[in-house]
Here is the input.
Amino acid sequence: VIYWKGKGDLEWLLSRFRYRYLGVPPSLERIILKRKNLVLLTYPNNIILKVKELFSRVLIEEIAEVLCLASTYISPVMTDDMDDFRDLIVAEVKTTKELTDKDWKLHMRIADYTVLDFYTWSTNNAKEAIESGNVEEFLQERKEKIEKDIRRYWRIVEDEGRAFLAYVDPLAILRKYNLVEEFKSLGKDAFATMGILPVIFIHF
Here is the structure.
């Protein structure tokens, strides 16, 4: 799922990954080109839309939307503007390496595994956390899982450098902005938006 501000070269992404389908949130429909690998996403049901509206009270609406839809569609986020995610980042994969096309493709595929492998666990974990009333303890467990996941990127990860990828935890957003109880009232379908998300920074 893409979150694009026009700072990066979307054509670069589309031309090199022409066999990879990229989801476009409704709020970014204006950027859709006549390319078959750009797919306009829809909300699977009204509950996911309500979660987006809840998040939009404290986040940029387009950020709220891309996070909800990326989790629901079990997809990483690709962006050319990491700054808009800065306050939401739990951990980062940094690198000073100049990535080749092969590197980009490999690590985008690894990010696919990150979001997929996290999904069932993180959505169920969020449900358990909210029902228990002890969200803070569960957030620590989720952060530890994220730190372990960073090892997947061992070929490029370094202590310093620019961000290649950042992790965003929607449960942490609920806790930070005191939205837990309102979220809970939306029902079980809302937990589809609680997947831990890798956000890939496309920059040239």
